[in-house]
Amino acid sequence: MQFKDLSKGTETYIRWDFGDGTSLEGTKITPALKNPVHKYKKTGFYISCLTIKCKGCNGKLWVHKNVVIK
Hints:
- By secondary structure, this protein is mostly beta strands.
- The protein has one domain (11-69): Immunoglobulins (Immunoglobulin-like), CATH 2.60.40.10.
- It has one helix and four strands, in the order ββαββ.
- The protein has a four-stranded antiparallel beta sheet with strand order 2-1-3-4, with no helix packed on it.
- The longest helix is centred in the middle third of the chain and has 4 residues, at 31-34.
- The mean pLDDT is 89.
């Protein structure tokens, strides 16, 4: 599954939680970190989460998204 970070800020930290117990995070913002591809091993319902920190912003922003793999 292709994930995309559509945020407009200058990220200083990104963390993807894919909902299946795996995650991807880092402070070196690369295209692979910003828009990762993740392969789910089993069919099912997952809740993914993107957490970012942006330059000039206080705190973190997070977005949850439901994913159904058939």
